[in-house]
């Protein structure tokens, strides 16, 4: 791996998105709409949230607006990062081939793409968390940020795979509806009460969202959930690697 090549490829990608007004609007608009406005418009009622308290899992009553704010922070970060992963596949195919012909190894291009996703996830999480902190302060802020970034990068990698598998319109629908249903509905305590059915625990966001909710409202994330969230991230990485191989970015 050539560090200078990685830096150059990553710089090209940063400049590409820095000039994209839609991306910049989403980066600012989504946190304000998803987190700020929705949490403010939520009825002032308390709802139960299942979180870790010591070695136990308990239901604590929290304002519905705070619950929605926490969930939508994750949803907004995932949406932005997932879209970047998706459109990176559509936008960069020709550029990647030209860079390979110019002597940039496939490994350098893959590392640059991963670096872009991590950077976007971090920036989107920072924006979203900043809006959230105006109304809710997570009990364990560092663990909360870890959970959101892990989930955002996971869906960014899924976006890479979707971009290789589907055309632009179909891929857009997949990345619009899949994370929304997974996070904003199936992992949202305002919709799902009590123990979730087994199939919900197999969704990509389950363990990362347990980290997020435990960090926000409980005594802190359980190590097992954090580890399993990283396992899911690794599986998403394998899925993305297979997609990049099919696209000719990764060589056998």
Automatic annotation (TrEMBL):
It comes from the Archaea. The lineage of its organism: Archaea, Methanobacteriati, Methanobacteriota, Stenosarchaea group, Halobacteria. This is ABC transporter permease. Keywords: Membrane, Transmembrane, Transmembrane helix. It comes from Halorussus caseinilyticus. The chain crosses the membrane at residues 21-41, 67-90, 111-137, 143-162, 169-187, 224-244.
């Amino acid at each position: 791996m050539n560090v200078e090549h990685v830096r150059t490829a990553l710089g090209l990608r940063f400049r590409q998105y820095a000039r994209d007004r839609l991306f910049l609007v989403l980066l600012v608009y989504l946190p304000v709409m998803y987190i700020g406005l929705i949490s403010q418009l939520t009825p002032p009622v308390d709802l139960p949230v299942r979180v870790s308290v010591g070695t136990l899992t308990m239901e604590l009553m929290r304002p519905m607006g705070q619950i929605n704010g926490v969930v939508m922070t994750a949803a907004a970060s995932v949406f932005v990062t997932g879209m970047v992963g998706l459109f990176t596949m559509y936008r960069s195919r020709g550029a990647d081939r030209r860079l390979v012909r110019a002597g940039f190894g496939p490994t350098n291009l893959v590392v640059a793409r991963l670096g872009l996703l991590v950077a976007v996830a971090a920036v989107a999480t920072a924006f979203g968390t900043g809006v959230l902190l105006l109304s809710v302060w997570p009990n364990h802020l560092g663990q909360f940020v870890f959970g959101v970034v892990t989930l955002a990068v996971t869906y960014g990698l899924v976006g890479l795979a979707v971009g290789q598998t589907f055309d632009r319109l179909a891929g857009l629908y997949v990345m619009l509806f899949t994370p929304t249903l997974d996070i904003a509905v199936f992992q949202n305590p305002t919709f799902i009460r009590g123990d979730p059915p087994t199939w919900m625990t197999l969704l990509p966001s389950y363990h990362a969202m347990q980290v997020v909710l435990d960090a926000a409202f409980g005594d802190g994330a359980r190590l097992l959930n954090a580890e399993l969230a990283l396992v899911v991230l690794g599986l998403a990485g394998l899925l993305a690697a297979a997609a990049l191989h099919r696209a000719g970015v990764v060589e056998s």
